[in-house]
Write a structure and sequence with these properties.
By secondary structure, this protein is an alpha+beta fold. Helices cover about 25% and strands about 30% of the residues. The chain folds into two domains: about 5-85 and about 220-225, 3-Layer(aba) Sandwich (Aminopeptidase); about 85-215, Aminopeptidase.
């Protein structure tokens, strides 16, 4: 199985192992870093039992992998989210020093922007997973746009948390932020990837214009452990 078929597992067993909890049978990000859990490429009953121990009886987990997986009968699917995994097919990076690099001290502003714009899961320590860039309003210090790096499977880095306040849209900030973050990814010899809800047509068109192509459509599953 390719790393992109199971990116969370290959990130947590590789470059992002410091953020992992669990064992060789099941892993998750530390809960204040990201919401995702992961199972090995080949999933057996022992892996599901190990995951149940991690999340606890009746616990809920986000299983985020394009490769299909069959749940045991005592697990439940609480929600299915149809998504696309997209991969940059050409160099898209363009460094832009007009953006500021965001750090742990900026987390409250980042969380506030995420709350207003809803780009997807973002936790208090997500910023530790990679480079995050942002733009503040010209009047005041409020953060109005950002993008950054999340999953880091071998050879790839995921662009994530691409969000822009309503009053700052249609200024090209999202495109510029994606290119600026991608410049750092490509400088490391890696390929930018991203994940997007299949229903988000506007975002998909932007990504396609930038040079991303859909690698695979898949379901992200919110699963519940047996009680």
């Amino acid at each position: 199985m390719e790393a992109l078929d199971n990116p969370v597992w290959h990130a947590l067993t590789g470059l992002q192992a410091e953020f992992s909890e669990g064992s060789s049978l099941a892993l998750r990000y530390q809960t204040d870093v990201a919401a995702f859990v992961a199972l090995p490429d080949e999933v057996g009953p022992d892996a599901w039992n190990a995951l149940a121990q991690i999340v606890g009886p009746g616990g809920v987990a986000v299983l985020f992998r394009p490769a299909p997986v069959v749940l045991p009968g005592d697990w439940e699917i609480a929600m299915r989210l149809n998504g696309l995994q997209m991969v940059a097919t050409e160099p898209i990076g363009d460094a832009d020093d007009t953006f500021v690099e965001l750090e742990a001290s900026d987390v409250d502003e980042m969380l506030a922007l995420v709350e207003r714009t809803r780009p997807g899961p973002f936790a208090r320590r997500t910023v530790e997973l990679g480079t995050y860039l942002g733009r503040r309003a010209e009047t005041g210090n409020g953060l109005i746009a950002m993008a950054g790096e999340r999953l880091h499977p071998p050879g790839y880095t995921e662009l994530s948390a691409v969000c822009t306040d309503a009053e700052a849209r249609k200024l090209g900030l999202a495109t510029r932020l994606i290119r600026a973050v991608a410049a750092g990814i490509e400088a490391r010899g890696e390929t930018p990837i991203l994940h997007v809800l299949a229903e988000n047509d506007a975002a998909i068109r932007v990504y396609e214009r930038l040079g991303f192509a859909t690698r695979v459509a898949f379901e992200a599953l919110i699963v519940q452990a047996p009680t």
